[in-house]
Amino acid sequence: MALGSVFFCAGPAHALQDPTRPPGPQATAAKPAPERSLALDSILFSKDRRVAVIEGEALREGQGFDNVRVIRIYANRVLVTDNGRERVLYLERLPQVRGTQ
Question: Quick check: is 53 in a domain?
Fold first, then answer.
């Protein structure tokens, strides 16, 4: 009898937690890292060679730096993974210059 009362007095502090129970309000969800800006400086695209210059780094398909990896280089865009997330980088459009007469 005395042993049984010890378990009742211990309370929920020593109880096992159910791993399938959803987290309560005290649990904080991990927030994804904000997407950083990556500058696609230029693309060299030919039959024999494909190079993208990203943040000043000349990269071929499969190469990378600082958790950025080039997946595919197209004539007008580059598919990369940035910290495991796929992103498409585009060249910035140059301002239109009107000719003078």
Answer: yes
pLDDT lower than 70: segments of the chain? 1-15, 24-34, 99-101
73 DSSP β-pair partners: 78
**Does any domain span residue 19?**
no
Strand order in the sheet with 68-73: 64-65, 68-73, 77-82, 85-90
Its domain, for residue 63, covers: 40-90
Give the single-character DSSP code of 91: P
pLDDT digits (tens, 9 = 90+) for 7-28: 555 555 556 777 787 776 665 6
Query: Is 69 within a domain?
Result: yes
